[in-house]
Amino acid sequence: SLASTAITCFTRGLDLRKGTEDVLCPANCPLWQFYVFGDGVYASLSSVCGAAIHSGVITNTGGAVRVQTLPGQENYPAVNANGIQSQVLSRWASSFSVTAGAQSTALEAVGRSVSTARPSTGKRPKKTLDKKAGNKDCKADIAFLIDGSYNIGQRRFNLQKNFVGKVAVMLGIGTEGPHVGVVQASEHPKIEFYLKNFTATKEVLFAIKELGFRGGNSNTGKALKYTAQKFFSLENGARKGIPKIIVVFLDGWPSDDLEEAGIVAREFGVNVFIVSVAKPTTEELGMVQDIGFVDKAVCRNNGFFSYQMPTWFGTTKYVKPLVQKLCSHEQMLCSKTCYNSVNIGFLIDGSSSIGESNFRLVLEFVSNVAKAFEISDIGSKVAAVQFTYDQRTEFGFTDFVTKDKVLSAIRGIHYMSGGTATGDAISFTTRNVFGPVKDGPNKNFLVVLTDGQSYDDVRGPAAAAQKAGITVFSVGVAWAPLDDLKDMASEPRESHTFFTREFTGLEQMVPDIIRGICKDFLDSKQ
């Protein structure tokens, strides 16, 4: 009988070559990482082992599976089965089904060396179409900051290029996968190519091969700072909402200081990894400016962001663990900036003294503050409550997860008109709007907008909100008493209290509110 081919957790139907193929799935694949489309008949984009578990042919202990290629179809359904949620796909060029494989062939396969199924290089368009997309599970924009100093020398420089090439291959570069660029550190940094220049592994490998050795001092600090500031602009190909990563390769030790560069990188929301090769020996340590250079430069000094290899020889076994780190986007702690990691609740006075046209100016102010933030399901979130004596949640934090939808929801708020009970409204918002997100990752802010005296006590409810971890900014217009505004605001009250005589004055306050939120966010992270 045909022997089975051992495959990986991520081998897809379209990576197999034959019409019918017997494969062996490994044990303990992480269920949440599977991409599966359909039910019973799966789009060839699906993970083979994922589909086999989904359809009940095997469990997560692995086993033999027979894969049958089928024609493409329309409307692959999403079904939750055996711990895997399959996804909808409207159309795909080919499909497959899975049945239990013969156990005898599986046992033969175990005795042989495990060969992973190689993606076919067949010239069929569907293959290239998907190869172009790359590994969608790995969300990263990466700058490889390579060592081009006299420390490393020409020979080890070439070994470094080989290693970077292997990492690039394993990352699965593609239009929807990771994007990479290279910067060479020597006396002066040089950006060799940007994220936008290549989106196919082949092109990246060619570009790495062509890199020339520059030589000079290893001014890694200078290069790191330069890369953090210049490399990740949108026009150079950085993508919104994708973690920015710099992988610094260091042979020996840097000639300059890394501490300031590390601070700059963190301010810019960049995750710095350091791969150190041939760490300084005890005798050499006397020549190193700062023995703790790795800890100062990395994103967080928690062990995750530093990586060591003894030499540039035999580095293949170090490729996969490094790639796994670069692809675990939930670990990229430095990606969190004030723009993408806050919840902002707006508490809007709808009392009759405001009037319809001024109410529109209030909504414009709310829109302009919200606009500055990166609103998404993984980013910042916005909610709005309007109050008179009553409160009305216009929308909560999870109702709209794109900026456009949030802005159109703000535009659609209808003016209530009525009395003013600000204290009750703060309590209502703390409980009903912030309650559901209080254990979430984002920092919570409440912006209270009012034009007058509250009929109830504001100090108690505001103190309770602050105790629940919500930072309060108070914005008063016209007849709003300064004492009320100060009583509501978080400490230091001066920088959290705003006032304008006219509604038209709200516009000038927008940048100050945004800056205030960002300052509080950064202070909370220290």
Descriptive key words:
single chain, 526 residues, alpha/beta, Ferric Hydroxamate Uptake Protein, Chain A, domain 1, Rossmann fold, 3 domains, six-stranded mixed sheet, 16 helices, 20 strands, 23% strand
Task: Summarize it.
Helices cover 32% and strands 23% of the residues.
How would you characterize the overall build of this protein?
With 526 residues, this protein is of the alpha/beta class. The protein has three domains: 5-100, Ferric Hydroxamate Uptake Protein, Chain A, domain 1 (Beta Complex), CATH 2.170.130.20; 141-331, Rossmann fold (3-Layer(aba) Sandwich); 342-524, 3-Layer(aba) Sandwich (Rossmann fold). Helices cover 32% and strands 23% of the residues. The chain has a six-stranded mixed sheet with strand order 1-2-5-8-4-3. Helix 6 packs parallel to helix 7 (259-267). The radius of gyration is 28 Å and the shape is globular. The termini are far apart.
Beta fraction: 15-25%
Please indicate the count of domains.
Answer: 3
Tell me the major beta sheet. 6 strands, mixed
Unreliable runs, pLDDT <50, ≥5 residues?
104-129
Give average pLDDT, whole number.
88
Q: Give the strand order, joined by hyphens, for the main sheet.
A: 1-2-5-8-4-3
The H-level CATH homologous superfamily of the largest domain, spelled out, is: von Willebrand factor, type A domain
